[in-house]
Amino acid sequence: MAKILIPFLLFPLLAIAADEEYTIQIQNHRFIPEQLIVPANKKIKLLIENKDATPEEFESYELNREKVITGNGKTTIYIGPLSPGKYPYFGDFNQATANGLIIAK
Known about the structure:
The protein has 105 residues and is of the alpha+beta class. The protein has one helix spanning 2-17; strands at 20-27, 30-32, 35-38, 44-50, 56-60, 65-69, 74-79, 85-91, 99-104. Helix content is 15%, strand content 49%. It starts with a helix and ends with a strand.
């Protein structure tokens, strides 16, 4: 009986941990998409996939995040909950081309 109840007892925890997931790709030293609209006041899971052979650093002062993504690698970054507004980010290794904006609405 206890084995049957365990999944039901854990279900509320799984619901809380389920974040909205968005993907940002790095390709040709650019972030795709350059603008990402996300819901305000919710925790967000960002999957960042680097399609380039060289590493890139996802950096944002406004989001207080800094993470190196290896060439042809991927990483997950959690942000939020964000107040409504605009949150710029950039690729520290290719600042001239790798720029993006997260818009929380």
